[in-house]
Amino acid sequence: MPRVKQICCIGAGYVGGPTCAVIALKCPHIRVTIVDLNQARIDAWNSPDFNLPIYEPGLDDVVRKARGRNLFFSTDVDKGIQDADLIFVSVNTPTKKSGVGAGFAADLNYVELATRRIAATATSSKIVVEKSTVPCRTAESMRTILDANSKPNARFDILSNPEFLAEGTAIDDLFAPDRVLIGSLQTPEGKEACEALCEVYRNWVPKERILTVGLWSSELSKLAANAMLAQRISSINALSAICEATGANIAEVAHSIGQDSRIGPKFLRASVGFGGSCFQKDILNLVYLSESLNLKEVAEYWKQVVTMNEYQKRRFSKRVVDTLFNTITGKRIAVLGFAFKADTGDTRESAAITLIRDFQEEKALVNIYDPQVKQDQIWADLNEASPDVSLATIKRQVFVCSSALEACKNAEAVVIATEWAEFKTIDWQAVYAGMNKPAFVFDGRLLVDADKLRSIGFKVGLGSGVCPDNGYDTNAYSVQVTVIGRGERL
Ligand code: UDX
Ligand code: UDX
Hints:
By secondary structure, the protein is an alpha/beta fold. 45% of the residues lie in helices and 13% in strands. The protein contains 19 helices and 14 strands. It has helices spanning 16-26, 39-45, 59-66, 77-83, 109-121, 138-149, 170-175, 188-201, 215-246, 250-258, 279-292, 296-323, 351-361, 375-385, 391-397, 404-408, 428-434, 450-456, 474-484; strands at 6-10, 31-35, 71-74, 86-89, 126-130, 156-160, 180-184, 210-214, 332-336, 365-369, 398-400, 413-416, 440-443, 459-461. The strands form two sheets. It has an eight-stranded mixed beta sheet with strand order 3-2-1-4-5-6-7-8, with helices on both faces. A six-stranded parallel beta sheet has the order 11-10-9-12-13-14, with helices on both faces. The structure holds uridine-5'-diphosphate-xylopyranose (2 copies).
């Protein structure tokens, strides 16, 4: 007899939504209810035409198969809690904006609210699972809240089950995870709860991929995994700066080092900088944790990964300005891509936001095109990035376009900020015809075929570390640069 018959997930976001939709699909005998305070979000999950609130390849298909069968979306949080044997807490945990630890620590307000709600509502025992990424020892705080507020006969076991899915490939990641990590207290009750959750995953995940560890190891492993991944990107981006200064080619360097089986080829793509809701936030969490533990050197070490990322974004936008003859005032720049990576509409911490803010400050005109990001989201992000500038002013400088071709019209330069596959196949000949000359392309994702663009007539600057010989039209460049007297080699 399966121990878990009903699951409730609090938080219908990028993590809770896809994760629990896949659990419902793979476990038809379990009733899964995903609850959220946000009515509009729940309405979108329930929309008759499957106009879901997040874009994720394959998600639509999963929801179509399971919704109404054993997958439900609701704003009735209390009923969801009452009915469930197991509750995932999958609310957002942004970096704190004020108070102690501002700028570093995670804001656990939503986790606390959800925990208090469980304690106040539950009339029977529950397994409570942290799905949100949380600082180490959050489970302990949850336990304190639950124990202090629970009803008689309601026992709570707390598990940590961090999610490792990446946006854009969430469904594939959930169908075939590298590993599922479950942390529990090493008490008989803790192990029992852990086994109940293992049983759920065993419906489709091979048992050797389900790792069971202590609660604190599990919490720390999530932060550590994201920090290590981000560290690889900052390392390759740091090397890209050396490439630009020396004439080495970062794509060749990345390929060469990735062939070493101890290093491996993944996560070595030089870029305009990493984004997303997790990397920066989780590293800052790790920094905060290290500082709280008086481990100053450890904190400094991890902080450098974020510092390098900021440097890369700044270096890229400066490169654009320098190349366009040291000024972009009044010039039109087409930014292709606004999402933090391809195959998602998510814009959290997207490098594009920083670049566009820099271009705005230089008084450029900016045309943006992204195949998935909604206009309102773009305005909200740009407004937040420049709090001292009114949205009306931003809208006089920045324009959202409905195609790449439209965005590039009359532009001096194209900046590729997100690696959408469609940017490889746009009609670059037509783009070139519509642009002012000389027409520049800055490829922040090393996405397009630079030789092909060069043969059309573009000046191709691969902004993230390709040497002059391979990237820019060196001769034209050195002349221009010398003329303006910056003395910098590009
Ligand atoms: C997730 C993880 O949970 C977070 O820890 C990780 O670092 C990033 O990914 P995510 O699913 O991306 O968060 O967040 P989001 O898409 O914002 O979804 C959270 C949802 O929880 C929102 O829909 C929000 O309305 C809901 N919520 C929040 C509640 O239902 N109740 C609350 O009290 C707070
Ligand atoms: C990440 C982790 O991969 C995932 O395991 C965790 O659960 C959540 O955080 P996500 O942020 O969704 O996932 O996407 P990811 O593919 O990791 O990309 C993060 C950022 O790094 C993106 O901006 C991406 O473009 C960038 N990136 C990635 C690079 O710049 N170079 C690379 O080689 C890989």
